Amino acid sequence: ETVVVASVWEALVQDAHFETGWPLEALVCELDSTCQLRVHLNSFAQALENVLRNAIRHSPVHGVVRLRGRRDGDSWCLVVEDQGPGVADADLERIFEPYLRLDGTQGSGFGLGLSIARRAIELQGGELWASRGAQGLRMNLRLPAANV
Q: What pTM did the predictor assign?
């Protein structure tokens, strides 16, 4: 189905704000309604939520989590970037392994969120990978664009 990414982000941000207390103005979306994907709504939303919650968990108290993107042919390239400590280059692929929690990782999760997110994105013909951001971790998503 056709999914407006900014609308999904807004719903996820509202939930995250309610549950974590993170200020809404620190969960920034730089996309407008023209960013539309051809994906399964629930699977995409779950994947994006896992990425968002991971970014919040690893960002400093006054940090900002930002979603931005650009159209690239038949795809949208989305980026969720946090201001946390980031991940060593050697661990950028390892963080997607199920049950893996890097030393010093905060929180009490099982290490499944990013693994589940990657699988959900791949099942929709997309990709999810990590890279180093300007200040923290950058999660990159490439997904099929809706024909707009």
A: 0.91
